[in-house]
Structure formats: C-alpha cells, structure tokens
Write a structure and sequence with these properties.
The structure is a homodimer of 405-residue chains. Helix content of chain A is 18%, strand content 29%. By secondary structure, chain A is of the alpha+beta class. Chain A folds into four domains: 155 residues, Molybdenum Cofactor Biosythetic Enzyme, Chain A, CATH 3.40.980.10; 46 residues, no CATH class; 92 residues, Molybdopterin biosynthesis moea protein, domain 3 (Molybdopterin biosynthesis moeA protein, domain 3), CATH 2.170.190.11; 69 residues, Beta Barrel (Beta-clip). Chains A, B: Pfam families: MoCF_biosynth (PF00994), MoeA_N (PF03453). Chains A, B: It comes from Corynebacterium hiratae.
Chain lengths: 405, 405
C-alpha cells in the first residue's frame, strides 16, 4: 500500500481493498437464509430416516409379487398405516392400507400397490374390508432408509450460502444449526456539512444500507458527520471499536475541506492508507485505510459514483467478509453476454455504465434513456439491473458483457 | 373453478391460482427496500436542489471566460465555499475557493476552474491569497438547479420495486415516504402427524419461509398441524382472520388421511376449491381453496415437490400480492437460454428440473449429479439456482430455457 496519488486501475484497486478483509470468525447458529457455512454441513440422520411408502396404497408382502401372482386378486385389509404411526408388518395373505410417507418395517420384503391400481377410490374414506388389486407395480414403491443420503454424508461444503434448499436438506437430515461466519457489523459514515444543515438529504447512507443488506444479513450502523475533523475522528474511533468494516462517503476528492482524507492522513500510519484516483468514471476519487486495524472504504460522495463503486468494490468485500469464496479479481463475478439495445456512451476512461437488462431468452442491455449519466444523475439509476464496464464504444446490436447487481 | 379430479396443465393451474389474488391495499410508509410502489413516485425537489459546483476548484465570474482572457492569469481569492455553506458571489476580478457540491448563486454567470488547472495543490490546506489559472475549462462545471430532474418529475411508476437506487433517487429529490402495498401476511401450515411426533422434522415450513422471504418483506406465521381435521379447521380459521394467504404442505394426495383435502372439501363451498393432479413431475397433487375469502395454496408434502411448486406457483403469487406487475402466465418470468452441460433426465411428463446455472459469459445448466431426482431427494436441491421445464429430452450441448429462482 502506498499513499501516492498515482492512478490505479480498477483491478489493482479491487485487489488492494480485498487484501484488507478476511472472512469473519465462525460461530454456531441456527440455520438461516443468507448465512454462510464456515465448516462443511454433514447429515446427522439418513434420508429417508426410515423405510417408508412412496405412494398412497396398500402394503403387501413380497409373496404377492409379480413373480407369484396374477391380477386381479383380493386380500383382506387388516390395518391402517398413516404417516407418523408405528410401522406394521402385514401378515401373509393380507394387506395394510398405507399413506405416502407411512413407515414400512426396516428391510421389509414387500411392495406398495398404489391405490389407483386397486378397486378402492383414492382419498379419505373408512378402511375397506378388502382390496382388489388390478395391476402390479414395476417397482416396490418403498423408499429405503438412507437410500438418498447416509448419515455422515456431506450436504454442503464450507463457504456455501445457506438458502431455502439447504435449510430444507439440513433439517430433513436432522441438522438445525451450523458453524457459520458471524454477521458483519458495518458502520456507514456519510460526510458533508451539507447533510447536517439540511441543504442536502443523506441519500448515500440509506442507499449503501440497502445495497449491503441485499448481500445478506448485516448489522449496519448509519451516521452522518459534518466537516469537523475532530468529530469525524471520534466517529472513526467509535466505529472501529465494534465494526468489521467502516464505509464513508464523500470527502475523498481534491477539495480543501475533504475531511475524510484529511483525518485519515493525519491519524493513520503512513502505509496503512491510500487516497488517489482510480482509472474509472464515475468515481475516480477513492481511498481506503485501516483504522485501529478495521478496514475503512472511502467512497466518493456523488451518488452515482458511490453507487457504482459500491457494486464494483463494496458488495464483493461484504461477500468475502461473510465467508463466501474470495473472488480472484474484480471481474470474477456472474456475468452475461448481452446485445446492446441502444448505443452506449463512448468511454473516454473505463466507464462503469449502469444498464437495464432484459432476460427474455435473449439478453439485451440498455443504458438509461436521456443524456450521458453524470455522477450526480441519481434519478437515472432506478430501473437498472446491472452494469457494463466499457473501455471501447459499443453501438446498437453489438455484444457486451454485463454484470447483474 | 371446479372440483373435478381431471389433470390440469401447469399453465391452467398457474392461471387459476393467480385468479385468487390481487395486489394488497396501499399505505404510506417509509421507503424501504423490497416494498412496491402503489402510486407513481414524484420528485418533491428539483435535482440538483440548487446551482452548485461539479468540481473542487475556484469560482470566477463569466467575465474571465475563454472569450475574454488568456491563461495564465492570477486572481485574489476572497473566500471559501465549502459544501453546506451559503452561496457567495465572487466580486469581479476575484475568485472564491469552492468545493464539489458547494453552492453557486442561482443563475450565476460564471465558471469553476478545477483545482488541477491552477497553481494550488489539491487537497486540504489553508485558503490561498491568490490563484493562478493555467487552463480554462471547456464547460462551466456548474450544475444548475433542476437540470437533472425538475420538481414534479416522475421518478418511478406504480408497481416498481423499491431498491437501493430508487431509495437514493427519492431521498435526493426530497421524498422519504411513498404509497406502497402492504406487506403480505402469510400463514404456513405444515401438516402431518409425523411432524408432530418427531418421526420427521418439519423442513417444508422453514423452506417456504425462506423462499417467500427472498421475494421481499413478508410477515410469516408458521405452524405445524397433525392429522386432526378439527385441529386443522381451527388453524384455517385462525389463519384466515389475519392472513392474506395461507399455504399448506402435505395432505393433498390420494391417501385415506389426506387431511387438508378432507377438511377443505368438507368445509368450503363447492366451486371455491379444487384438488387434483397437475400434469407435472414432481408435485402432481395440488390444490387450492378460498377459506373465508382468503386464498389457500395447498402444496404437496414431498420436499422436492413442494420446492418446485413454490417456485412455479407460490413466489409469483407473492410478487403479485406485493403489487409487482402481474405475470401473463407461468412462463412470464426472467429466463435464460442455456447450454446443457450434461444430459438432462428424460421427461415422461412435463418435468420441473432444478439445475445449477453457470453465468460466465456463456450460460451452462447442469442437473444435479447423481440419480434422477425423486420427490424426496431434498439433498439434491442445494447448489441449484433455477429450474428447467422439460417436455422433451435434452442432451449435453443442446440448448434449453432455464428460469433462475
């Protein structure tokens, strides 16, 4: 890390920021959506947990199998086996009415005749005295204990995002907690006297809150600070005491009152911060630091610059903090090859261009309507679903790579 | 609506379910991510709210413009204009030091010289006595009040999802609340005696909770009910009193103890419910009803069947309840044309096949490894990111349409 003002490339800046963070410590917690596994998740129970019926129908011993019988035949029905009841064994020459999921004795050599293949109407009704079987199934319709997953089977590797399907799989396999990475604690400090005196509302703080929250559970503290270096220093100290990441907006440019840069340069050991220009538009002025060991990401204050910088740099940092696999670089993220639905603005420098993306089988990307997006054109952002990173002109009908938000 | 047992197509079933719901009533609420506008959102303030500087630099009257001056020239600096301060007018023959966002008097005929084009070093420092200008800018670097958005401009139409960019745009334009659709209240009733007596854990309830929560803010009540019709009827009554939607799992098939179907058929007026088979695998047994006017979606109990049915039918219903644009049909959702990375299972009936989707410029879809996914193969779901709807065989290298979750 250096504190020179030389332009960095987007790739270099991303790598430098990413070097500041590592996955947060692990803890055991209830499985919940958006957490990230810190250890592999292993089945405690086999799936299915016991032999059971795959169909609504009648359980009969193997004796009455395709090898030994011809349809139709009639058997007395000697009992009911709803799901949730104890397993029962039908005596030879009898049948049990059984429900989907109803237990079958472990290893029982028999088969389930689907109700549709008998003379009994499907659905609720009293237990019939006899059942006449019209057709024998091609398989036994018994799901064997552990036939899907054995106890001890690895359901998911470390660094897996916990989602609805993993929750279902884990609970089914008797696992309701997991060792997951701690939820990130982030302090957002929006700076600028104009935010304090009502000249401008703070839009960056709520915007970053929403962007970071969209990456998963996060504990965000938001604050607005004017241009007082003493006050900002106090905010940094408070934030560093209980945050995993500090994000500032504004105050990083070339101005005489750029308080973030001034405070960091005054307080932080040389070599532990950088402010300067990244070769990108919008959002060239950027900076970062370690404050008492806590990473500080200093975003520009213009809302479009803050927005695209958050997508380029901040949300990947959040994902790495949360324990997801570390990207190999700024472009190591989901991307699509789209067709330009309109001419894109000419990039004089690498241009981060928000765009709408239509996913209708083909993939078409459009820059927002209206004039070229400038860094204060915040009202042009709604309706965009991703960004392109343009280094050469793209005209209607040409292909380009887009990165969904 | 009929209560016959005839197979419905996926399309027909989707349309019937969708006919049960409409967007929830509107209320005024703070702008927050995931809410949906019930009315257009209109700028209260112009953007920018006042003339201001686009650069850190020096504000000078137009008199010193490219037409009338040649560089270099030197002017006394008579004041500082940080962002958040009152606007000041530089007297003729003088300059004001001004920050990005610093106010400029309304309509002031002047220009901002970027600090980089002067003899003053960028960044913090005491106000200089004079500034020498080395280069005149090609434009005035003044952002005019309302030049981006006029007061009264429509920022977003009704049925727009509130996201980070809309929050930023709205707050910037002086709007902090909006008329949005109410947050859906959903009761999930997982049925089955086996869930009550510990024979099986309830995995469907938490899974559906996670799936529905991923569509946006939702107020979910979860409950587990055994096979007692009296008790289930009580749960329906309780749920209908304060829910916008009721979702059940299990008890809809052809079994003798299929309590959901039995209770609905007993209690609900003929014509206001349907149970039967949808021409799909997995998840053929489906059902729906109106219970005291509240839509009830009855999903199958097998976890893979419940999972794919939730994606096909339930999450679109949630989006419509929340006020997003109503889909024209079950396939009116984002979709991608992918290349099969492996052979997909042969569909004997329309097959809803969860698959992983690699987005690396090209789009490749893979069915989960291992044997053909059966309706209890819940551990094969993690790692899938969408589904294909297969009606004919798809082998490696062929194209198919995938629907991201």
């Amino acid at each position: 890390m250096t504190s020179t003002g030389t332009d960095l490339s987007i790739e270099e800046y991303f790598d430098r920021l990413h070097a500041l963070v590592r996955a947060l410590p692990a803890e055991r917690a209830a499985l919940s959506q958006g957490r990230v596994l810190a250890e592999p998740l292993v089945a405690r129970l086999p799936l299915p947990p016991q032999d059971n019926s795959a169909m609504d129908g009648f359980l009969i011993p193997r004796h009455f199998s395709p090898d030994s019988l011809t349809v139709p035949f009639t058997l007395p029905v000697v009992g009911d086996v709803p799901a949730g009841s104890p397993a029962q064994t039908p005596p030879p020459g009898t049948a049990l009415r059984i429900m989907t999921g109803g237990p079958v004795p472990a290893g029982f050599d028999g088969l389930v005749i689907p109700v549709e293949d008998t003379d009994i109407p499907p659905g609720p009704g009293p237990m019939p005295e006899t059942v006449t079987v019209h057709r024998l199934p091609g398989r036994n319709h018994i799901r064997r204990r552990g036939s899907h997953v054995e106890a001890g089977h690895q359901l998911a590797v470390a660094a897996t995002l916990v989602d609805a399907s993993l929750i279902a799989a884990a609970l089914s396999a008797g696992v309701s907690t997991a060792v997951v990475h701690r939820i990130p604690r982030v302090t957002v400090i929006a700076t600028g006297e104009e935010l304090l005196n009502g000249q401008l509302p703070d839009s960056n703080g709520p915007m970053l809150d929403a962007l970071m929250s969209a990456t998963g559970p996060v504990d965000i503290t938001r604050t607005v600070c004017g241009d007082s270096p003493v006050e900002l220093r106090r905010r940094f100290d408070t934030a560093a005491a209980d945050s995993d990441l500090i994000v500032t907006t504004g105050g990083v440019s070339a101005g005489a009152f750029d308080v973030v840069r001034a405070v960091v340069e005054d307080a932080v050991e040389r070599g532990s911060y950088w402010f300067g220009h990244v070769n990108q538009r919008p959002g060239a002025p950027q900076g970062y630091a370690l404050w008492d060991g806590v990473p500080v990401v200093c975003l520009p204050g213009n809302p479009v610059a803050a927005f695209v910088s958050a997508h380029l740099y901040l949300t990947p940092l959040m994902r790495s903090l949360r324990g997801l696999p570390r990207p190999t670089g700024v472009l190591d993220r989901p991307h699509l090859t789209a067709v330009a639905g309109a001419d894109f603005p000419h990039p004089h420098r690498p241009l981060i261009q928000p765009c709408s993306i239509a996913l209708d089988g083909s993939i078409t990307a459009f820059p927002p309507p209206g004039p070229r997006m400038r860094s204060h054109h915040v009202a042009a952002l709604p309706g965009t679903q991703g960004f392109a990173l343009l280094t050469s002109p793209v005209t209607t009908g040409e292909q380009l790579t887009v990165y969904p938000y």
